[in-house]
Amino acid sequence: MASASVRFEPGEYEWLAERHGVLFLGHTDLGMVEFLITSEALAEFIDPDLDGIDSDTAIETYGEFESDIHRIARREFVSRLGGEPPVLLTAADVWDEPSQFRRP
Q1: 49: part of which helix (H) or strand (E)?
Q2: DSSP category for residue 90
Q3: What is the band of 99 on the pLDDT scale with cuts at 50, 70, 90?
Q4: How far apart are CA 2 and CA 24, in angstroms?
Q5: Which of 8, 24, 64, 79 is the most buried (most CB within 10 A)?
Q6: How confident is the model over 15-24, as pLDDT tens digits?
Q7: What is the C-alpha separation between 25 and 84, in angstroms, rounded?
Q8: Using CA atoms, how far apart are residues 11 and 22, in angstroms rounded to an integer?
Q9: How many C-beta atoms surround the C-beta of residue 6 within 10 A?
Q10: By C-alpha distance, which of 49, 59, 45, 48 is closest to 16?
């Protein structure tokens, strides 16, 4: 039986301008899964008062908080039982994650 967990490799991400977010890959026993975290969700890590951030700031923020984002993605993947790709992570998902790095 396949495991419900998803694994991530650091550095497997790219900016998708048409989706205003960062696409990153997860690996499961059944294959690869695409995840997308929106620029608004990434902004939550640096300043919750921002509506969004530009692509350069988004990539920088993703790199800085990659392990936190992977933890959120793993939690959402399991709670949604996979779902249709890409698994979308929004600002609401970030707020569900207690983080010592994000400002309250």
Answers
A1: none
A2: -
A3: low
A4: 21
A5: 24
A6: 999 999 999 9
A7: 14
A8: 12
A9: 23
A10: 59
Phi, psi of 82 (to 5 degrees): 90, -90
Query: Two tokens at 62?
Result: 């993703």
Indicate the DSSP class of residue 19. G
* Residues across the chain: 104
91 burial via Cβ count (<10 Å: 0-12, 13-18, 19+): buried
pTM: 0.81
**How many CB atoms neighbour CB 54 within 10 A?**
11
Distance CA 29, CA 84 (A): 17
Q: Taking a C-beta distance cutoff of 8 angstroms, is the pair 85, 69 a contact?
A: no
The pLDDT value given to residue 78: 81
